[in-house]
Each structure stands twice: as structure tokens, then as C-alpha cells.
Amino acid sequence: MTPRASSPPRSTYRLQLSDHFTLNDAANVVPYLSRLGVDALYVAPLLKALAGSQHGYDVVDHSMVDPARGGEKGLETLSEACERAGLALVVDIVPNHMGVADPAQNHAWWELLRLGPAALRASWFDVDWDFGHGRVLIPVLADDFEADRDLALAGDELRYGAHRYPLAPGSVRPGDTPAAVHDRQHYELINARRADTDQNYRRFFAITDLAGLRVEDPAVHQATHRQILRWVRELGVAGLRVDHPDGLAEPGEYLDRLVASAPEMWVSVEKILQVAEELPASWPVAGTTGYDALAQVNALLVDPLAEPRIDDIYRELTGDEADWGEHATAGKRLVATTILQAEFRRLARLVPAVPDAVVALTELVVAFPAYRSYLPEGAPHLQQAVDTVRRRRPELMPSVDQLLPRLSDPYDEVCVRFQQLTGAVMAKGAEDTAFYRYTRFVGLNEVGADPGQFGLDVSAFHALTARRQEVAPWGMTTLSTHDTKRGEDLRARLAVLAEVPNEWADLARRLQQLAPIPDRAFGYLLWQSFVATGLIERERMHAYAEKAMREASEATSWADPVPAFEKTVHAAVDAAYDQPEVGGLIDAFARRIHPYGWSNSLTQKLVQITMPGVPDVYQGSELCETSLVDPDNRRPVDFDRLENALGGLDQPGAEPTAGGTSSAKLWVTRQALHARRDHPEWFVAYRPLTGRPTDAHLVAFDRGGAITVATRLPVGLDRRGGWGEVGLPLPDGVYRDALTGTQHEGCVPLSELLARYPVAMLVPERS
Asked: H/E element holding 693?
């Protein structure tokens, strides 16, 4: 198989793979993707994962394509299908960790447990052998564990319930009890709750079933990437998406080594940037996977002028006086002192002479303003954290001063591990905790976003997008992924709440009265979710509510569920379906805002696909995407339905009317993707365009040939009676709207240009 030309893809389409949707299934949808206008197929991880895995990020064997996902033959079939259709193939890779939930499936981990530090691949894993007294601590035992009752020997294995572990050579003696044999192993089974404090191997965030890999070791890098690089050489893989580089000891060096192995490859990284943060300039990559673009497009839909009123409503109905910064700090401190304690204790063991090292390190990490630094790049983040600790906890400064020289040295293990830890605390404390506590406007609580930044005006959006054209024209952009907190069209609907704050407040007050939840801030999140989704399948909302309230870790949690509180939440969910007044109020309000949400949906889709960057379309999001957080957003996609819908648009004159929400979105997606793929010369620059007179409801830009025109804040536009006399002066030439086929030149009245859709994509008319 000959790889496609090495130029970056002009767009990508993300497919989730599993044992229910395999590489062969992916190959079958390639013709559809080609007709849609996609330039590259972008697939979830392919290496062998834990049996039954529905995502592939728990790799257990780097030597083969996962048989459950179609195996080597399936990848060959997919590569051939992409080659026939002219699509590039992009693959997601997972260098940071491996799945170890079932040691028998992971030969490298099994060998480590069997032979300890003498294992051939012991260097793969980041184990603190000294802390475990030469043993790997595995937190798996239940609270009521009794060794004599619960451990068993079976051949050359130790069994604990369904868990299987190897036995070290010569460790079984005649007459031994299973407990005695366990005591001679290179591992120790410990209580599951001790994962928070005592486990001694690096893991992915707080997931003990995902053990960190030491890819900073060239031998480990080579062994774990040999198969991936073969795909590049032999099977047409033209791009890689690197999962979670922030977990690596040396992300920059890792990327240098990866790119040196395949210099022509397009590489993007799953790096979460804070507002105004940019990727390290030294990284040899095209850009991020697009969460920064998502945050900007999402904020563009929200009216910044509505913030004072939204704040008042939130405080009135929840009693929450804290701002986002305070919530983020509290969430980070919570995870740092609970589920991630073990990581802080390991770090403190490297500085035994520093008093209160755990507390000082904790406060520095909590104060760290970004996911991580890559010293010397990012040094101001560390200084900002030090300044914050000096203000908050001045009594810790003697300890901080002792730590600072080592934290500032990128070659010091203390610095390396500190940098690995800050990202984990940010992700778990902010995204996975505070996002569910600070519920002022949940449509802004999204990966890569700052919930404290309420909306974005047009001029700020243009400035950020122009900068994207300068520094990351081939980085990815996205609106939905397998990790987003809610689907793009739910956020588009939630943006409307900022335009109807008083109506929203009246509804929320009444729902609180009819179905009260003791944690009023969580109830406020639940009712926002309901008006965005409408009355979706009951079981989906129950599953979402359970995950959201446990992630918040206030009235209940994953570690210690509180049945009484959870019962009130589930009763409120049921009320939406069983009590006519509750369900009727939700349905009526949903019908009120969803048409405006439809306008926002088309705006964000067209803007995302046509703005600088490589637009990614998440599976199924070419139609209405109303998923909630995972696993809801990883549900199977009905590609037969998509095929039929697209086929209906292939006929001349079949473009949908403005009333067809899903079909209109599919049409916009199709036309924009075809333009990106077929005419890359139209997308080489970025110049903002303004209305005459200037209008806050308009966002428009010229990409060097293709012109995007879109509506924002549609409720306000409707209230004033439409566009009136506002026109858009076009660059010289004649343009055709790729959505309607109409021709335009000069200064075009927006009432004419946007008569059918709230968006337009103007392309140069062929002479």
C-alpha cells in the first residue's frame, strides 16, 4: 500500500471502533464519507486492547492490530478502501499508558508481576520499587477481604475472585497457603481504597487499571511504536493523533523521536490549551486536536452582555456565590488530597529534607494556571503558581523556596514528575469535578474552555482566528469528540438561554419547586440539560444524572455513593417523564429555544469547517448531535440513515428548506467539506469582513476565495425584525452561494443573502 501524498488532510472524520463497529465496518462507510466530502478518515486506537473495550485506549499488546476490531486483515481492507476513494488514513495512538485490568491479557505486565525488576520489560513501567519494598502494589481488594477465604491457587496462578495473577518461579512450597504464596510474589494485593494513597506505579490520572509507560526510554519507544510505524510505511497511514502527551515525561523529545521516524507524517496532539495559551513552538506538530477552536466557536454564540443577568439568576436559584476560579481551585484541591494523593506522596519522597513537602507541592499544583509546563517553555506558569502560594499560604514559602530550584530544572526527576502531575490534577479537578459544580451556564463547561469567560464578541473571535491562521493553519478544529461533555447541538441550544434569561429563570424556578433537589446547583445543571435535550430516552438521562452527580463529588461520589441523595435526583428525572406539568414545561421551553439553537448549529458548523485549521467531523455529527457525556457520545451511529439522507441531497435542486434541521446541517456540512477538499486554494488566508453598518449579529470572513457568512444571537436579531438595511460588502468579483446556488456581488443585503439559511458560503463563480 502506497501512502497518500504527505500534505496535511483538508478535513477528517472521526470513527469510534469497537467489537461492534470494526475496521471492516469502517471500510464499508468509506464511500459515504467520500461523497460527504471528507478528505481523511480518522480512527480510534487500533492496537490490541483489553477484551470488550469500547474505546481502545487500554492497549494490552503493541505487536498487533486488535483482532476484535478486525485485526490486520481489517486494517488492510480499510487501507485499500481509503486508497480507492482517495482518502487519507489517520490513526489515534496511545503512548502514555497500557491497560492492566486483566494482567493475563497484557504479557508485558504479566511478566513484570511474575519476575519483578528482573523482567525483560520491567523498564516499560514507571514503578517505585523502593516504596513497595520490591513489590508492585495492586489496589484491588474489597473492604471485607480475608486472605484465607478469598485467595486461591490454580496451577501457576494466584486467584482473587475473577482476578488472575502469575506466580514467581519457585514461590510455591509444599503445604503453603495461598496467603503465604502471595507474600512471596513481586506484587502485593492491597485494599482498593489505598489506590488513593499507596499505589506505587504511575497511572493515567487516577485509573489504576491504566499503567503509565516510560516512552522516554528509546527502547520502550521503539518497542511500543514498531507496529504503528509499519502502518505508516506499508498500509497508507498518513497521520497520527497523539493521545494525552501531557502524561509523558518528555513530550517534546517524544514528538521529535516520533516525527523523525516518519518525517512526512501529519501529527496532531491531544493537548488542552488554556485561553490565550499556545503549543510549545519547538514541537514538530501541526497543532492540537481542536478543543481550543471548539471553545472559541462555542463562546462566539453566547452574548457576553448577558453575563450580569445570568449571574444574578444563578446566585438566586442556587445560592452559589463562588466564581469559576474558586470552584476550579476547590476541585483541584479535592482531587489532589484524595484520589491523587499517591502521586503527591511519591513526589515528596524525592525531597525528604523539605518540610511539609506534600502540602507545599499540593498547593503549587493547585495554583498552577495551565495543564502543565515543558520547561524551559512555560516557566512563567511555575512562577505564577509560586506567587499564588505566597499569597494564599505564606507559611509554606520556606518549603516552596527549597523546592523551587529542583522544580525549575527540567532534568531533575522532581521537575519531571511535577510537570506530569499538574495536568492530571487540572483534568480531574476542573473538567471532571468543578465543571459539575459550577453550573452557572453549563454550555460553557466544555473541554478546553474557560467557564468563567462568558461569551466572546466578534472582534475577539476574529483576533483569535487570525492568530490560528498564523501559528496552526494545519492543526485540527472540532465541535464534538468522544470526550466532550455534551454534543455540539446541545451547546448551540444552551447558548440561547443567554438571550432569554428571564424566561429561563421563570422555568428554572418552577422546576425547582415541582421537583426539588437538595443540591440546588446540581438541580440547575439537570434542568439546563433537559431543556437542551428535550425528553430524550429516560434511561439516557438517568445515566447522565448519575455520572454528573458523582463527578461533582459533593452530595454523593463514586467512592462513597449516598443513596438518599441519588434517589432525589433520579426522582427529579422521573418527574420529567411522569408528571405532566414538569414534562410539559420542559417540552414547551425546548420548542421555544430549539429553532434558535438550529440557527446556532448551522453557524458553528460552517464556521468550524471553514475557519483556519483541519476541520474534524465527529461520527454522526453531520446530522443533529445531541449526545451527553461519555459513554452516551459513543453510541452506535446509524450509517444507513446517513447514507439515505445524503443520497437525498445528491439530486439537483434537492437542497433542504430552512425548516429541516438535520438535513440542513448535513447540507451545510457536505457543501463546506467539498469546498475544503476540492478547492484548497480558496482557504489560504483569513480576513474579517464587516457589515455596513457594523452588526453584532454578523460573523463573516474571507479565507482567500471562500467567504463565510453566519448569524449569531438569533433571538435578538428576530426581536428587532431581522437584518433591515444591513449589507455585506464583498471583495471584487462574482460569488455563488454554495448552499443556495444564488449569485452575488458588490454590497449584498443580508436579508437577501440569508433569506433561506442563517448562513452562507460564497465561493468564486467560475467564468
From this structure: none
List the grid coordinates of 540. Answer: 439516557
Kindly state the greatest CA–CA separation across the chain. 94
Tell me the three cell numbers of residue 721: 425584525
CA–CA distances in Å: residue 472 to residues 32, 275, 500: 29, 15, 36
Residues 720 and 723: their CA atoms lie apart, in Å, by 8
Contact between 349 and 358 under an 8 Å Cβ cutoff? The reply is no
- 641 and 635 Cβ atoms separated by less than 8 Å: no
Cis peptide, bond prior to residue 764, ω within 30 of zero: no
Q: How many CA atoms lie within 13 A of 616 on its CB side?
A: 28
Instruction: Return the half-sphere exposure (C-beta side, CA atoms, 13 A cut-off) of residue 91.
Output: 25
Grid cell locating 584: 410539559
Of 617, 705, 599, 710, the C-alpha closest to 659 is 599
Query: DSSP 3-state assignment of 225?
Result: helix
Contact 444, 316 (CB under 8 A): no
Mean pLDDT of 222-247: 97
Give the C-alpha separation, 547 to 532, whole Å: 18
pLDDT of residue 275: 84
Q: Do the beta carbons of residue 134 and residue 187 sit within 8 Å?
A: no
Indicate the DSSP class of residue 573. H
In whole angstroms, what is the distance from residue 375 CA to residue 382 CA?
9
Q: What is the spatial distance between Cα 664 and Cα 605, in angstroms, rounded to a whole number?
A: 11
Is the pTM for the entire model greater than 0.85? yes
pLDDT tens per residue, range 40-57: 999 999 999 999 999 999
Which residue would you say has higher pLDDT here, 85 or 3? 85
The whole-number pLDDT of residue 358 equals: 98
Q: What is the dihedral of CA 557, 562, 565, 567, to 10 degrees?
A: 110
| Cell 498500509 found at | 235
d(CA 654, CA 535): 31
CA 478 to chain centre: 10
Contact between 603 and 301 (Cβ < 8 Å): yes
Write the single-letter amino acid at 106.
N
Q: What CA–CA distance (Å, rounded) separates 723 from 705?
A: 25
Between CA 649 and CA 656 the distance in angstroms is: 8
Evaluate whether 24 touches 74 at the Cβ level (below 8 Å): yes
| Angle at CA of residue 744, ends 742 and 745, nearest 5° | 165
**Hunting for cell 445543571 — which residue is that?**
525
CA 295, chain centre distance (Å): 11
CB atoms within 10 A of CB 756: 16
Contact 420, 248 (CB under 8 A): yes
Q: Where are the alpha helices (DSSP H) in 249-340?
A: 251-261, 291-300, 307-318, 324-336
Strands 266-269 and 151-154 come out as unpaired
Nearest to 217 by CA among 176, 244, 248, 262: 248
The C-alpha atoms of residue 519 and residue 555 are separated, in whole angstroms, by 7
Residues 349-361 pLDDT 10s: 999 999 999 999 9
Phi and psi torsions of 566, nearest 5°: -60, -30
Which contacts qualify for 103-108: CB closer than 8 Å, 24 or more apart? 103/164, 103/165, 103/166, 104/164, 105/50, 105/51, 105/60, 105/61, 106/60, 106/61, 107/60, 107/61
Q: Quick one: residue 236, left, alpha or beta (phi over 0 = left, psi -120 to 50 = alpha)? A: left
The total of other beta-carbon atoms located within 10 Å of residue 373's CB is 24
If DSSP codes are grouped into helix, strand and coil, which group holds residue 272? Answer: coil
CB atoms within 10 A of CB 595: 16
| 419/414 Cα distance (integer angstroms) | 9
Using CA atoms, how far apart are residues 101 and 494, in angstroms rounded to an integer?
Answer: 38
Contact indicator for 308, 441 with CB cutoff of 8 Å: no
How confident is the model at residue 660, as a pLDDT?
A: 47
Sign of CA dihedral 200, 204, 208, 211: negative
